[in-house]
């Protein structure tokens, strides 16, 4: 009789626990729309790879910690076809039809802007990644946050401080006619007021430009100490080719986006040495113990190096989301409060938000030295001192 009663109790207990076990193993659905086709795909796909690496690592470790319970991740990915007008529609589908638990951010600033109203309407928190614009600070704090410190209004003053520390007196601009580069030019010029640094050339070019020879010729004739090629990868290639062909010898040459991408190193080899670019992450920064393991894991999985801006930002957004979910679970209100108030440990050091902006990470600049991207500014974060741009090789 005692054995029968014990067996019955165990059976009832197992039946009661079975739904809980099934619930614990239920995947956490995470959705993202990102360019896999169209003009933004070459830059966006490495960002998607960062998301995929994080999902693989998290699942291999037993799943996502949801307030103390490990659950596997099911990543749902849509191609936005590099069309920002589709962003809100796709993300609304993820929320209402796919009923995702969490969201990862798309690629590029305009795509992020397209989602602000939607996230507010559904009260659905999302950590941004590849977005940088001073206009982001005008976004009402609520359901989106931006971890980058590469903001134009911060870069302008920091660049001027750097040039003053190096004793440079003249600067020339080669600026793509696009909001982000033009914002940077505007804030740099505003920061030059009251200094003894003079603008000696200021050239602009359209996104569909095929050759920058004439732009570089004009700049070379001005003999500046500093050249800013405020360009995206396609135009950055044109600048590099023209600067090499004309042996532009300015000691400080900044190329906005492109130099830390692996294809750039393959194209320009040793000519990249001495080129400055934007970015606030490096695997060489020993103060960030997670940085080098991430770098190595990315190379091992994809057989290529990550860039030093967008890919780390994408991975950081995952780290922030994961740490918030571990504390707050999947309740949207609790999750929003956790992201807005906590400090997060990432591959780029600590991150804390004030409003929508990361206020922990300083604005930094990288320089390619011996094929590696070193942080050269600010000095407190530097992994190597700045070096003048040397002669161009054939």
Give an overview in words.
The chain has 394 residues and is of the alpha/beta class. The protein folds into two domains: 23-149 and 287-358, Rossmann fold (3-Layer(aba) Sandwich), CATH 3.40.50.2300; 152-278 and 364-381, 3-Layer(aba) Sandwich (Rossmann fold). The chain has helices spanning 2-25, 41-60, 87-96, 109-113, 116-122, 152-166, 179-192, 213-222, 233-245, 262-268, 291-302, 310-328, 332-341, and strands at residues 28-34, 64-66, 69-71, 73-79, 102-103, 126-127, 144-145, 170-176, 198-205, 226-230, 252-255, 275-278, 343-346, 349-354, 357-358, 365-369, 372-377. A seven-stranded mixed β-sheet has the order 9-8-10-11-12-16-17, sandwiched between helices. A three-stranded parallel β-sheet has the order 4-1-5, sandwiched between helices. It is elongated, with a radius of gyration of 24 Å.
Q: Topology of this protein?
A:
Layout: H1 2-25, E1 28-34, H2 41-60, E2 64-66, E3 69-71, E4 73-79, H3 87-96, E5 102-103, H4 109-113, H5 116-122, E6 126-127, E7 144-145, H6 152-166, E8 170-176, H7 179-192, E9 198-205, H8 213-222, E10 226-230, H9 233-245, E11 252-255, H10 262-268, E12 275-278, H11 291-302, H12 310-328, H13 332-341, E13 343-346, E14 349-354, E15 357-358, E16 365-369, E17 372-377
Parallel strand pairs: 1-4, 1-5, 6-7, 8-9, 8-10, 10-11, 11-12
Antiparallel strand pairs: 2-3, 12-16, 13-14, 14-15, 16-17
Helix pairs in contact: 2-12, 6-7, 12-13
